[in-house]
Amino acid sequence: MHFQFTEEQLMIQKAAKDFAENECKPGVIERDEKQLFPKEQVMKLADLGFLGMMVPPEYGGAGMDTVSYVLAMEEISKWDASTSVVMSVNNSLVCFGLEAYGTHEQKEKYLTPLAQGKKNGELYIGAFMLSEPEAGSDATSQRTTAEDKGDHYLLNGTKNWITNGGTASVYLVMAQTDPTKASRGINTLIVERDWPGVVVAAKENKLGIRGSDTHTVMFNDVKVPKANRIGDEGFGFKFAMKTLAGGRIGIASQALGIAGGAFELSKEYSKTRKAFGTEIMNHQAIAFKLADMATRIDAARLLCLKAAWEKDSGKDYGVSSSMAKVYASETAMWTTVEAVQIHGGYGFVKEYHVERMMRDAKITQIYEGTSEVQRIVISRSILR
Q1: Does residue 108 carry a catalytic annotation?
Q2: 10 Å Cβ neighbour count for 101?
């Protein structure tokens, strides 16, 4: 593992930083308040090649490494976590899942436009559908069914808390085909949003990442061709778990960026805000908060980069991604709370950004596997 980035990685980092400051920061408060999906920003992410960063060029991607992905996610998340989660889901869950386990035909038909983020000039992104009303952390309790009808499946059920649920063109849906086999009876199906029987419910009114497009999606007798099943019969649950391991690197990077953004704002604020005759950075109570922020953020960054390096090296990165996610997400929550405290009354005001960052940080402890689930993964590994 090297501690020096390549010239290409630094260029990607700078491009992401410039994009975040010039394209994401303007209007981010309004998008949060009005729950506006950042379509313009996502379309520009597609132009940068950031929606299929790790997909090979032969399937429309940029062919970058996971370290570059972490760097880009961190920078964009510093200003707009609603935009970065669209990028994370499309890269880590949808594109990765199709690239790693899809057939050549599935890749040509779906992965190529997903990696490009566009099709016929229109936005073309994906969504990953595992969670249900009674299947959150317990992902084995799938109630959505895919009844085998010979040459197709008949899909019925409900999926909850789906990022990109209303804007995605393609869904990767986990569904139970053989309940007698429990998790081994689950399949992953590629479903197109405009197929008959697909119903998208109203957008969720959320605490944070309010610009992201989160919906409940229902399936009523949706006919899915057998050619749209990913992997062998019963591979769906393994597909979900393997894909989520990479997704955790994306969300860890998002959490890292949220924490970094709050830290940078707090540091600058401490240099200008005066109390008791001097800038508040000169008060040890504030200086120590900033020191702890910097230390935790640096530790979280190293965990994210370690997981990314292991993935790029072909190593087993499951535990590393869980460590990165649980630590980075808790760092984001702690750092943003402290950032509001440093800003005092101004921290409670929307125009100073840190209150939004605090709200955005919370979800990183929940989606792509809660902190409790990550600790299960880690403890099982160390207690073998």
Answers
A1: no
A2: 17
SS3 122: strand
Nearest partner of 31 among 93, 84, 100, 71, judged by Cα: 84
What would the two tokens of residue 307 be?
Answer: 């997981």
Q: Does residue 244 share a domain with residue 232?
A: no
Beta carbons of 344 and 286 less than 8 angstroms apart: no
**Cβ pair 222, 154 in contact under 8 A:** yes
Of the candidates 40, 204, 368, 372, the residue annotated as catalytic is 368
Contact 62, 246 (CB under 8 A): no
**How far, in Å, CA of 83 to CA of 211, rounded?**
8
Give the predicted TM-score (pTM) of the model.
0.97
What tens digit of pLDDT does each residue of 110-122 get?
999 999 999 999 9
Q: Are 259 and 361 a contacting pair, CB within 8 Å?
A: yes
Angle, CA 43 vertex, CA 24 and CA 12 arms, to 5°: 65
Question: How many CA atoms within 13 Å lie on the side-chain side of 100?
Answer: 20
Shared domain check, 116 and 17? yes
Q: Where are the beta strands (DSSP E) in the chain?
A: 118-119, 122-123, 126-129, 145-148, 152-163, 170-176, 186-192, 198-203, 214-225, 229-230, 274-275, 278-279
Residue 161 and residue 32 in one domain: no
CATH of the domain at 97: 1.10.540.10
Q: For position 327, which CATH number holds?
A: 1.20.140.10
Query: Could you say which of 197, 212, 237 is where a domain stops?
Result: 237
Whether 20 and 99 map to the same domain: the answer is yes
> How many independent structural domains does the chain possess?
3
Instruction: Please write the tens of the pLDDT for every residue from 222-253.
Output: 999 999 999 999 999 999 999 999 999 999 99
Is 100 part of any domain?
A: yes
Dihedral over alpha carbons 93, 72, 74, 310 (to 10 degrees):
60
Residue 1 lies in a domain: no
Contacts of 30 (CB under 8 A, 6+ apart): 36
Say if residue 137 is in the same domain as residue 178.
yes
Per the CB < 8 A criterion, the answer to whether 333 and 362 are in contact is yes
* Block residue for tokens 């390549």: 6
237, 261, 294 — which closes off a domain?
Answer: 237
Query: Under DSSP, is residue 126 helix (H, G, I), strand (E, B) or coil?
Result: strand
